[in-house]
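Quick one, tokens below. Sequence please?
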């Protein structure tokens, strides 16, 4: 559909050019690539000093503004190919980074030594373990907590949504109270209460179990609303047809409603799982050595924050693909509808 719109827009523009017989001067190849050539020459003439003067800063700023103007002109031209526009965007980002690196009054060597000291991360500590070993052990525990909390929150949330769909007024009061309470309760407070307060009632849980329980209770409230929205999306006529066939409410829910509702709720469920997995960082408040806590521990031992940067990179590598997967699932569900 987008390709058809693009082709139609191009044909309209070409027809307009044929009828008018004029291509705007700022869209002509001579001007666009001539301006690009002048910008390249301008870049070569930029001041090569460590501390530019006020006038030199003005020249640098003017160069960047002219580059942005040229990019805007290029990107707004419908006749330019998409691959060229993509390259233009990356070139502008690279240019901004290069100008900052070249002219900023920054101690890059010191910054690299303090925040990106990868050699220090590979040096063995007491017991022969390295900082990487500790981080990956924390990552393993993080994924385990995220996995089990996702399973339990799905089970609890699904049961709550199913029971609520039966429209029992007394039962719904308790279900709504549960959902509102755990959606309003901060996760860190819930974890602290489960891990530190429950032992006074005679119930003692290990730190990972307390973390899984807190995340499951919190996430189940959101999962319940997701499943409820999926159940409500099923047309009432299908429910009436199931009852006409002699199905009881449980059979209708199991055979008719839930199979269709699952297809609807998969994208928001995936997004909720990713958000819940990132919340595992809060488990550090109850002494769980997950990824963030492990990084903070290495930072304290090494007196260097490189471990925090490494943990951030691990979070990005693990969770960005999951976030994109949730987006892909959502787009596919829209197409299937």
């Amino acid at each position: 559909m987008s390709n058809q719109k693009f082709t139609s827009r191009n044909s309209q523009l070409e027809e307009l050019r044929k009828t008018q017989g004029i291509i705007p001067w700022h869209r002509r190849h001579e001007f666009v690539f001539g301006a690009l050539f002048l910008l390249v020459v301008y870049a070569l003439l930029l001041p090569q000093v460590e501390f530019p003067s006020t006038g030199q800063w003005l020249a640098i700023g003017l160069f960047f503004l002219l580059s942005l103007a040229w990019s805007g002109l290029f990107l707004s031209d419908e006749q330019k190919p998409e691959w060229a526009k993509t390259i233009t965007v990356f070139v502008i980002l690279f240019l901004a980074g290069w100008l900052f690196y070249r002219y900023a009054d920054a101690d890059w060597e010191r910054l690299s030594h303090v925040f990106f000291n990868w050699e220090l991360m590979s040096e063995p500590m007491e017991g022969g373990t390295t900082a990487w070993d500790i981080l990956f052990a924390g990552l393993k525990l993080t994924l385990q907590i995220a996995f089990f909390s996702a399973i339990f929150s799905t089970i609890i949330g699904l049961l709550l949504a199913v029971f609520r769909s039966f429209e029992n007024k007394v039962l719904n009061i308790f279900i709504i109270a549960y959902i509102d309470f755990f959606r309003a309760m901060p996760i860190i407070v819930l974890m602290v209460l489960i891990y530190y307060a429950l032992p006074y009632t005679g119930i003692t849980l290990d730190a990972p179990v307390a973390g899984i329980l807190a995340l499951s209770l919190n996430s189940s409230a959101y999962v319940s609303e997701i499943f409820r929205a999926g159940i409500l999306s099923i047309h009432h006529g299908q429910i009436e047809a199931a009852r006409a066939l002699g199905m009881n409410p449980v059979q209708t829910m199991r055979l008719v409603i839930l199979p269709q509702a699952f297809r609807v709720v998969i994208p928001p469920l995936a997004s909720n799982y990713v958000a819940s997995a990132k919340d595992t960082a809060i488990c550090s408040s109850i002494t769980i050595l997950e990824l963030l806590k492990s990084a903070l521990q290495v930072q304290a031992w090494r007196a260097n924050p490189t471990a925090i940067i490494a943990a951030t990179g691990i979070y990005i590598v693990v969770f960005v693909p999951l976030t994109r997967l949730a987006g892909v699932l959502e787009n596919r569900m829209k197409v299937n509808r």
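The chain is about 80% helix and 0% strand. The mean pLDDT is 83.
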